Amino acid sequence: MRRYFLKKISIYLLTFWVAVTIDWGIPRLMPGDPLQVFLLKFQAQPDAQKYLQAYFYKAFGFNQPLWKQYLYYWDGIFHWNLGVSMFYYPTPVATVIGQHIFYTMGLLVPAIVCAYFVGNRLGAMAARRKVLDNSILPASYLISGTPYQWFAMLLAFFLGALWHLLPESNAFAFGTTPVWTWTFIGNFLEHWILPFLSLFFIMLGGWAIGMRNLIIYELESDYAHWLQMLGSPARLVRRYAYRNAVLPQLTGLALALGTFVAGQIVTEVVFNYQGVGLLFFNAITNSDIFLMQGAFLLVIIGVLVANFAIDIVYVLVDPRTRVSMMGAEG
Amino acid sequence: MFARKKKGFLGVAAVVLAGSLVVPLLSIGATASAAPKPHVTLNHTNTVFSSGVMYSPPTIWNPNEQGSFATGTEGFLYETLFLYNPITNLYIPWLAKSGKWTSTTTYVLTLRSGIDWVSDVASGQAVKGTMTGADVVFTIMLAKNDPGIYYSNLAKDVKSATAVGNTVTVTFKHPAAEDWQSFLYQDPILPSSSVYGMGAWTTAELNTDANAAPVGSGPMSLDTANTNSEEVCYRTNPHWGVGAALGLSFKFLHWCDTVNSSNNVELTDFLTGVIDLSNNFLPGIASLIHAASPGGSTYGNISTYYPRPPYMLSANTVWLEPNLSKAPMNNLYFRKAVAEAINESQIVNVDYSNLVTAANPTGLMPSQSSYVDTAAVKQYGFSFNKTLAKADLKKSSYSGQTVTIECPDGWTDWMAAINLMVKDLKTVGIKAEALFPSYATRTSDIEDGTYDFAIDNNASIAADPYNYFYRMFRLPVEKVQSAQDNWERFTGPVATKAWNLVQELNATAMSATSTRQGIFNQLETIELQNLPEIPVWYNGAWAQYSSTNWKNWPHSGTKTDQYTPVMWGGWLGQMTTVLALAQLVHTPKA
After folding, report:
1. What are the pLDDT digits (tens) for A211-268?
2. Which of A277, B184, B286, B546 allows an S-S link to A265, with CB 3.0 to 4.6 Å?
3. B182 and B73 in one domain?
4. Are A203 and A151 in contact (CB under 8 A)?
């Protein structure tokens, strides 16, 4: 097992190095000069513009050769110094991400986990009886095929703008300060409901469809038929089938949770929810290469950690994996 | 049994939901409890909420970082010597009690007494000191001492500035009427103290420091406790010197300007009463204003400056900007053909639903109509005429290549206008294509001179057309046109003549009205004869208000009609928006 994990870690380190290198390089290949875009905000006279250009060219490190900029970036990663954001100047990138990541976490983690839980249950129910299958499956297809932004706009319009039931934008009300009080928590939850629902319902469909298909597959397998021939109750057979069917879903859950750090751009734009998705949007549209690098780095780390976690979880929950590893080592 | 199973399922679902929320809530609490106190929940009884200015979170309160600072840096925190009223075309003494030219190269102004420098709310709104002539001198001389200051053009004009108490004497190397006039109402006075002000700041700090604990003289001070990534908040300054001198005060305790998002979110926030003043462009607002008239609608209490078209004051001139360094844009007949092919009325009616007005051929703003040389317009001006357009196109020897017209992606009203222009150009035989790159790419295209046509509105409202022609004719043209002047790259003997005229204007006394008008006439003739820019329409000073919580907003034909209702940079601190806000009173609940 030790050899297995050492091999895995080596692969992940190599993947991290390649991904970070691409993360550093891609923003620099984008068209347009990010410094020109940044300096446009200053609206200075030409001679003052030249001074500012020279100052910021040096301040952002563009005067260094590319290989030095690359090495400084790696040094920054190890010290968690990701540079200064150009769009949110003069706020450091790490601070900007820190201000937004928890809103994304608060929105996407519950949506993914609840959609996973409820969707798997619904999918399992659908596989139990034809009547349920004929209603849950088409509904799931319809829901999972719905674009996130369209559903979000419907919720915002009907429940927010038209019927005034819930606030339709922002993570908390204007005039409210994010501090640890019941007032703020209530306000935050009130603003959280619509974005959460817009994600939960769409994600739900995908999990339900997947689990329904997996359950049917497991119920058709040899061990299930054997149990039925032995006279086992249907409930017992379904329970074994569910345990086997949930394994691939677990992989999907880990990947979904790993990429949650990327946020959900369209949902956050529709609701103006201050998450990482909105950060990505602002970084790309304003050529903030340092913020782009920082945000993509977060995605890289999230995906790799999630993959590693699923490797460990599989070893724990699936005895076949443990046995095959022991067999390989023996 | 089914009920028991259902309860078990719901119970587990609730636990899963609550559990997955705990970590983010705790994290938000942990990071947020570091927010400075005191922080209270602001509401519409004590706070006015606005939108339409900021597109990124407020992080800078340095007035030297024009275009980057948060709403209110100019106007609420820092003030200018005079204000300009674009509706009456008058200057209002503000920090200065008076000012006049005592010779063609000497200007003497007297500062008001009792103007205090006040710190932000978190530190108790303490009075730090009193403004004196030394602060005015410090601010003026930054033009010479700070190479990065945005008004560095003053350095070539000013010889010296001295203060005796509150009297400041500025001596110029040569007459510099326009540059000085601009400084008087556009550039805020900064604290010179090395203890609480910027007196000891380095050049780098003056131009790049965020100034997160500003010390200002204005009607409000920064409320850092309630400022966050979604809004900047201010609290009324009880030590406001100009207010005391002029008998002005704000009836609200706080003002919060919010960070913009998409149009649909801004529209909904405005219509549901979350926002009191919206300076966003809200497509379709004209129909909602009509719907809100007596007779009932879902949305009541909303209004604009004018109750009918064009609803909004004009803010700036929108140009179709040709790149004169490339063919076929460098051909005058081609430019004429383009100008005559575009149906401005269609853009005004279809794209903007009459929220804007078509520009006159000179492009001078409606408030500058007295400067328009009507004879030159009659002789050389263009108008929508497809027959003439086809004839001019023939003279241009246009070879049929496709030209692009670009604006940043997401600027939907400009995108729609470009699509209409492309159709118009095709009807006269010009192949045109709309291009909507990202803001960064569009900016690079213009500054590097690789674009064909672009939409531009850099010439904003001002007391006279000097600024307009400065932006149009400034020379020399750099390889990278990073300043927002002469983006069209108008060069050559005629361009040099025009730029010399602009500089002559700066050197002509403001009192020499007929001489100045003569120079303006020459500049207008050059513009009309050469079409370096093609004026199309006047962009609106987007402002719609809700009277649900606060009333007495500026409306034409009322005693508030001389006040500008716009919070944008260049308006709040330079024009009469502060006076507009001083009229607001809370709307009593029915």
Report:
1. 888 888 888 888 888 888 888 888 888 888 888 888 888 888 877 877 777 778 888 8
2. A277
3. yes
4. no
In a domain, A117, yes or no: yes
Q: Residue for token digits 């995906």?
A: A303
Q: A-B interface: how many C-beta pairs under 8 angstroms?
A: 221
A76 inside domain = no
Q: Which of A51, A109, A282 sits opposite B20 (nearest CB)?
A: A109
Q: Two tokens at B539? A: 């962009």
For position A142, what pLDDT does the model report?
A: 87
Q: What is the pTM (predicted TM-score) of this model?
A: 0.89
Residue B99 lies in a domain: yes
**How close are the terminal C-alpha atoms of chain B, in Å?**
54
Q: In terms of pLDDT, which residue wins out, A20 or B439?
A: A20
Whether B253 and B327 map to the same domain: the answer is no
Residues B335 and B528: beta-carbon distance below 8 Å: no
B78 shares its domain with B130? yes
Question: A52, A177, A183: best mutation site toward chain B, by most B Cβ within 10 Å?
Answer: A177
Are residue B332 and residue B432 in the same domain, yes or no? yes
Cβ-count burial B515-530 (b if 16+ within 10 Å, e if not) = ebeebbebbbbbbbeb
**Does any domain span residue A113?**
yes
| SS3 sequence of B304-325 | ECCCCCCCCCEEEEEEEEECCC
Structural domain count, chain A: 1
Q: Indicate whether B124 and B60 sit together in one domain.
A: yes
- In-domain check, residue B300: no
Question: Reduced to 3 states, what is the DSSP secondary structure of residue B278?
Answer: strand
Residue B231 sits at the vertex; the CA angle it makes with B120 and B583, to the nearest 5 degrees, is 75
For the segment B327-342, what is each residue's pLDDT rounded down to a tens digit?
999 999 999 999 999 9
Residue B558 makes CB contacts below 8 A (sequence gap 6+) with none
CB A285 within 8 A of CB B410: yes
- Whether residues B55 and B122 fall in one domain: yes
Structural domain boundaries enclosing B353: 314-540
The answer to whether residue B547 sits within a structural domain is no
Tell me, yes or no, if B485 comes closer than 8 A to chain A by beta carbon.
yes
Note which residues in 356-415 of chain B have CB less than 8 A from chain A. Answer: 409-410
Q: Could you tell me if B210 lies within 8 Å of chain A, comparing CB atoms?
A: yes
Residue A330 has pLDDT above 50, yes or no: no
B454 and B400 in a common domain: yes
* ipTM for the assembly: 0.84
The CATH number given to whatever domain includes residue A246 is 1.10.3720.10
Extract the runs of DSSP E, i.e. beta strands, from B441-512: 453-456
Residues of B in contact with A34 (CB under 8 A): 440
Chain A residues touching residue B148 (CB < 8 angstroms):
44, 48, 51-52, 55
Please state, in angstroms and rounded to a whole number, the distance separating the CA atoms of residues B569 and B208.
18
Q: Confidence band (pLDDT; 50, 70, 90) for B297?
A: very low
Q: What is the pLDDT of residue B311?
A: 93
Strand-pair category, B277-278 with B47-54: parallel
Chain B residues near residue A45 by CB distance under 8 angstroms: 150-153, 483
Question: Is residue A257 a contact partner of residue A203, using CB atoms and an 8 Å limit?
Answer: no
Report how far residue B334's alpha carbon sits from residue B316's, in angstroms, rounded to the nearest whole number: 25
Q: How far apart are CA B30 and CA B41, in angstroms?
A: 19
Tell me whether residue A37 is in a domain: no
- Structurally, chain B folds into a number of domains equal to 2
Which CATH number is B472's domain given? 3.10.105.10
| Any A CB within 8 A of B271 CB | yes
- Of all residues in chain A, the percent with pLDDT exceeding 70 is 97
Collapse the DSSP code of A318 into the 3-class scheme (helix H, G, I; strand E, B; otherwise coil) and give the result: coil
Residue B32 domain-assigned (yes or no): no
For Cα atoms B126, B129, B132, give the angle at the middle one, nearest 5 degrees.
Answer: 150
CATH number for the domain harbouring residue B129: 3.90.76.10
Q: Which chain B positions have a beta carbon within 8 Å of A88's beta carbon?
A: 56-57, 59
Domain extent for A268: 95-329
